[in-house]
Write a structure and sequence with these properties.
This protein has a seven-stranded antiparallel beta sheet. The protein is an alpha+beta fold. It is built from four helices and eleven strands; from the N terminus they run ββββαβααβββαβββ. 14% of the residues lie in helices and 33% in strands.
């Protein structure tokens, strides 16, 4: 075993797929790429998201208290990276990268229809925003794009490299303790 810096911990405990976060600020939609998120609770569904105060989306989320978390497939890998490499205060990223949108039902931020899934979210707890940039979001609606042919997701390893989902392993019969969950 080789010891490396604990600052690299996120590379082995990456919390889930890379996502796109859309926000709305003064009638202008924006999108950013995010890799630091986690499920916190099943019911009600709560999601923790880290968005740095230097990001344009941070101010929009603080102001409106709502966003959409969209999960891109492997076919949007380069777009997801490119979205993360520019700022929405200077660029209309939805237009630049040709992302298709649709009006959400409960929030002003747009759904990104190119993605595998979209989660309409509202901020339910801001106590950890100041010390950690950690927003606690409540999932209000979940949209799944069943027409998508590419269903694999990306997982960021921290230095521009990613792992990609492969096949699925079905162990539902062994999950006896958690059968009550939907």
């Amino acid at each position: 075993m080789k010891e490396i810096s604990p600052s690299q911990t996120y590379r082995v405990l990456e919390p889930g797929p890379i996502v796109l976060v859309s926000t709305m600020d003064n009638g202008k939609p924006n999108v950013m790429t995010m890799g630091f998120h986690m499920m916190i609770r099943h019911d009600p569904p709560l999601i923790g998201c880290v968005i740095g105060s230097w990001d344009h989306s941070y101010q929009a989320l603080r102001k409106t208290g709502e966003c959409v978390i969209a999960v891109p497939g492997l076919d949007l890998a380069e777009t997801a990276v490119d979205v993360g490499n520019c700022s929405g205060d200077r660029v209309d990223k939805l237009q630049r990268f040709g992302l298709k949108t649709r009006q959400a039902k409960d929030v002003s931020a747009p759904l990104i229809t190119d993605c595998l899934a979209n989660i309409e979210c509202v901020v339910v707890d801001e106590r950890l925003v100041e010390p950690y940039n950690l927003f606690i979001l409540g999932a209000k609606r979940l949209w799944v794009n069943e027409a998508r042919k590419e269903g694999r997701m990306l997982h960021h390893l921290g230095d521009g490299t990613f792992t990609v989902d492969g096949g699925r392993l079905d162990l539902k019969e062994r999950m006896v303790k958690w059968r009550h969950l939907p």
